[in-house]
Specification:
The chain is mostly beta strands. It has two domains: about 1-160, no CATH class; about 170-275, no CATH class. Helix content is about 15%, strand content about 35%.
Length: about 280
């Protein structure tokens, strides 16, 4: 499982254009059961009145569609693709990587990461959530099954944890050596101006973020890259400068450095933090 996890953590994932995410033209929250059958064919299994299984395709071994109700014109709420994840060079992992490249989002730029227990993390279910405007989630189960789910906005908002407190990304709320800090994202990842929009340049994706910290009424803005690292510029009552922060070796921690470009005070220093636990949101 560690081998699969390492593949996941260095890969890329989300939509070629940044809007409500669709799978083969089927858009959760908009498309109907008729639209699904035109793309996926007839069902292969009925799990419940609203959860239907279809034949796998494009690397997915199974495809499940959750509908809003059991009518013939029911709206799609969620599309989930699944496959068995081992070994790391399997067809499933190739499928997983292709999904990541197509949708252009890094797992390290998820809004929230959750698991069923903070203890023994590699034996628990891991979920990466990507909110507005994509509404998707990636799951790794204890049995190494990989899942990709495409949600309607309404269903996503009801099941995904909120990006507050400990998100186990760099977003959220922190206690740091520069005071209480909050980091939020300002939009989806984007390529720098002038960069060709193709998979070969996905490594250059940057996600705009902003933050506040209590020491000297501080604020900062910058970008989070596909590794999860934030680089940007800070400003507080003492002057301005640059910062570089990244996830620490322990879950729910970060480390980094800052340097001063204007004002009075030390020329540079470290920046360290631990996230603040806040129970919020739901579970997939």
């Amino acid at each position: 499982m560690q081998r699969v996890l390492s593949v996941i953590l260095v890969s890329l994932i989300s939509g070629a254009c940044f809007g409500q995410t669709s799978f083969q033209g089927v858009t959760p929250g908009k498309s109907t059961k008729t639209d699904v059958q035109q793309v996926l064919g007839l069902p292969t299994n009925k799990i419940s009145e609203t959860l239907i299984q279809y034949k796998g395709q494009q690397g997915a071994e199974k495809i499940f569609v959750q509908y809003r109700d059991n009518s013939a014109t029911a709206i799609v709420e969620r599309i989930e693709l699944t496959c068995a994840g081992l070994p790391a060079d399997s067809r499933c992992n190739q499928f997983h990587i292709s999904i990541q490249e197509k949708y252009k989002v890094s797992l390290d730029t998820a809004d929230v990461t959750s698991w069923t227990s903070q203890a023994a993390i590699l034996t628990k279910r891991l979920i990466w959530y990507f909110g507005d405007p994509q509404y998707i989630a990636s799951t790794l189960t204890p049995s190494d099954e990989i899942r990709w789910a495409f949600y309607s906005k309404e269903l996503f908002d009801s099941v995904a944890p909120k990006a507050v407190g400990c998100t186990y990304t760099l977003l959220g709320d922190w206690e740091t050596n520069r005071g209480r800090m909050t980091i939020v994202r300002l939009g989806p990842p984007a390529l720098p101006p002038g960069t060709p929009n193709d998979p070969a340049h996905s490594i250059f994706l940057q996600q705009p973020i902003k933050g506040t910290y209590s020491l000297n009424n501080g604020t900062f803005t910058g970008n989070r890259d596909i590794s999860g690292t934030i680089q940007g510029e800070w400003k507080d009552d003492t002057g301005t400068g640059k910062l570089d922060i990244r996830k620490g070796s322990g879950y729910g921690t970060f480390v980094g450095e800052w340097t001063r470009t204007t004002g009075s005070g030390p020329a540079k220093g470290t920046w360290e933090g631990r996230c603040i636990e806040m129970k919020s949101g739901g579970n997939n």
